[in-house]
Amino acid sequence: MAILTPEIDNLLLMIGDALIYFGALAMLLRARGRIGLGAFFCALGVMHSLETYLASILYVTLPFGIVTSPGSTVLFTGKLMLLLLLYIREDAVVVRQPIYGLLIGNVLLFALAFVMRQHLAVPLGADRAADFGFLNDMGGLMVWGTAVLFFDCILIILLYEHSRAWFGGHIFPRLMVSAALVLTFDQAAFFAGLHLLTGAGLAVLVGGWAAKMGAVAVYSVLATGYLMYFERPLGRRIAPRIADVFDTLTYRERYEDLLARTGCDALTGALDRHSLESYGRRAVENAAAAGRPLALLLLDIDHFKAFNDRFGHAAGDIMLKRIAAEIMTAARVSDFTYRFGGEEFVVLADGIAGDEANALAERIRRAIAALPGNEPSGRVTASIGVACCASDASGYDRLFEVADKRLYEAKAQGRNRVVGARPPNGDHPVRLVKS
């Protein structure tokens, strides 16, 4: 019976490490609907410390003379793929949470370790004196590695989304190409810090890159299988609390999926009413269940019938296209714009309520009012009613009813204005008069 070489043993052990790591973390991700994402985030954070420590001290030889660290090859590559999975099934707003947590936690660890060095320690025994060698090996590398991870996550999300144009809906090549490109960048960036802190040589750079490419192939197969056979269509979403680069990434993949499933209005390019009935109800239900704010804006173009009668329906269609474009430009990247019917539009804005929702509606109203016309009588304006979950209602039908009531209130007050959501503890909705 042939005895395996140490290099083959190391390769098989690393494949086993990858299967255990991905299997356990994917199981926690799959169970997020029952136990929340906290368990997944905590496990990822614990493994992050082991990953960085191993990347600084443990290296093995694989076939073809490849020299690499299980921490960098197995754990870091796996973590990046799992964060991409989290983005695919949730959104970028959720992905930023563990990244910020890891970065802040590592900086805190580094800072507290420096302060604790100043203590006058009392040894518990001859062989029990305080030893900060562990932190000496990995402290700075943890901070540097997490900073690189921040850029890795942005790049892999952007590449994954852009790869739709290359591979369509085929998950495996999208995962494979996105991860391979990003981990090539990561290997160069992480090696720079590793070389500075530990003196690692070029063999580690080249061997680590080759090993990561192999890990990418393994994890791409595992991630594709997970998405195809174990994942539900949609996951819960967490409300954004701060504005950063991840906000511009949020919902884009989901937005394109929605377009592919339900289509958009043929005239204006906005999502159609069928999409609103399908997605809108689910969005309100999810927001109410998660205790997350959501705003529904109902817009009606003022006196649009008179515009059509004066300039003709062809000019009216052109104007509707321009209005829809202005609405989508004025709205946030994460907002969804629907043509409800005729000259009515609906905007669903997840994660905002109150003053933020009113400000969004006012921004849209001003954008429409600023549209140039062929003559003064050709200018158009819009009236807008705003309702928010859950301060106004927790169900889609009731929320739409409140927004519709406020829309007609805006029209009764003279049009070209917003009747917004009520302020916290307020008894009456906010009225934003035209400027």
Describe the secondary-structure layout:
Elements: H1 6-30, H2 32-35, H3 38-57, E1 60-62, E2 66-68, H4 70-89, H5 92-116, H6 133-162, H7 164-167, H8 171-198, H9 202-229, H10 245-249, H11 252-262, H12 273-290, E3 294-301, H13 304-311, H14 313-330, E4 336-341, E5 344-350, H15 354-369, E6 382-389, H16 396-412, E7 418-419, E8 431-432
Parallel strand pairs: 6-7
Antiparallel strand pairs: 1-2, 3-5, 3-6, 4-5, 7-8
Helix pairs in contact: 1-3, 1-4, 1-9, 3-4, 3-5, 3-6, 4-5, 4-6, 4-9, 5-6, 6-8, 8-9, 13-14, 14-15
Quick structural summary:
The protein has 435 residues and is of the alpha+beta class. The chain is 64% helix and 9% strand.
Overall description:
There is one protein chain. The protein is an alpha+beta fold. The protein has two domains: 6-229, no CATH class; 264-432, Reverse transcriptase/Diguanylate cyclase domain (Alpha-Beta Plaits), CATH 3.30.70.270. 64% of the residues lie in helices and 9% in strands. The protein is built from 16 helices and eight strands. The strands form two sheets. It has a six-stranded mixed sheet with strand order 4-5-3-6-7-8, sandwiched between helices. A hairpin with a 2-residue loop joins strand 4 and strand 5. Helix 3 (38-57) crosses helix 6, helix 4 crosses helix 6 (133-162) and helix 4 (70-89) packs parallel to helix 9 (202-229). The protein is elongated.
Which characteristics define this entry?
elongated; two-stranded antiparallel ribbon; alpha+beta; 9% strand; 16 helices; 2 domains; 435 residues; Alpha-Beta Plaits; six-stranded mixed β-sheet; single chain
